Automatic annotation (TrEMBL):
Coiled coil: none annotated. Its main location: membrane. It comes from Collinsella tanakaei YIT 12063. Part of the high-affinity ATP-driven potassium transport (or Kdp) system, which catalyzes the hydrolysis of ATP coupled with the electrogenic transport of potassium into the cytoplasm. This subunit acts as a catalytic chaperone that increases the ATP-binding affinity of the ATP-hydrolyzing subunit KdpB by the formation of a transient KdpB/KdpC/ATP ternary complex. GO terms for cellular component: plasma membrane. This is Potassium-transporting ATPase KdpC subunit. It comes from the Bacteria. It is a single-pass membrane protein. One of its GO terms (molecular function) is ATP binding. Keywords: ATP-binding, Cell membrane, Ion transport, Membrane, Nucleotide-binding, Potassium, Potassium transport, Transmembrane, Transmembrane helix, Transport. It is found in: Cell membrane.
Length: 196
């Protein structure tokens, strides 16, 4: 009796392993590759057939010629083969902690010093805080607008040209309702460099 139940249970387990673990994965991957190949392969941005980044992963920019994004919590370590590997995670600091407040205050000073001609009094919060993943590729339109005078001066473009680039790299709310408007920092920087 027990052997019969055990063999049937193992048979069902094997069947569902193949169906759910292999079959389902192949079907979903196949549909994604056919219907959404760009997204299924990581939304990679290429310039001259060279991958320069992904629309989905933020990069750290802190020079005056480029738009700055959110704080990136990335640790780069070398593995046993000498290859560099990057790991990302949130800081897990409590917003009520003194250490967190010191980090935010230091970032506010840095942002204000880099953008002395900014039209807004308050520094947008997404320029001084980290996202949950530590790799958010987008900022708010306010955070982008805050940087327009610096970018115009550093790149030699007019403020309207910089705003046009920002508009081309912006997304609105999904279906006009869900989420918040965002600006992709990497795309803006590639357009400022004339690479997109």
């Amino acid at each position: 009796m027990f052997k019969g139940v055990a063999s049937r249970a193992l048979g069902v387990f094997a069947l569902f392993t193949v169906v759910c673990g292999l079959g389902y994965t192949l079907v979903v991957t196949g549909i994604a590759q056919v219907a959404f190949p760009y997204q299924a392969n990581g939304s990679l941005i290429k310039v001259d057939d060279k991958i320069v980044g992904s629309e989905l992963i933020g990069q750290n920019f802190e020079d005056e010629d480029h738009m700055w994004g959110r704080i990136q919590n990335v640790s780069v370590v070398e593995d046993e083969n000498g290859e560099l590997m990057a790991y990302s995670a949130p800081s897990n600091l409590s917003p009520a902690s003194e250490e967190y407040q010191e980090l935010v205050d230091a970032r506010v000073e840095k942002i204000r010093a880099a953008n002395p001609d900014a039209d807004m009094d308050a520094v947008p919060v997404d320029l001084v805080t980290c996202s949950g993943s530590g790799l958010d590729p987008e900022i708010s339109p306010d955070a982008a607008e805050y940087q327009v005078p610096r970018l115009a001066k550093a790149t030699g473009k007019s403020e309207d040209e910089v705003r046009d680039i920002i508009a081309k790299c912006s997304k609105g709310r999904l279906l006009g309702v869900f989420g918040e408007p965002t600006v992709n920092v990497l795309k803006v920087n590639l357009m400022l460099d004339g690479k997109l």
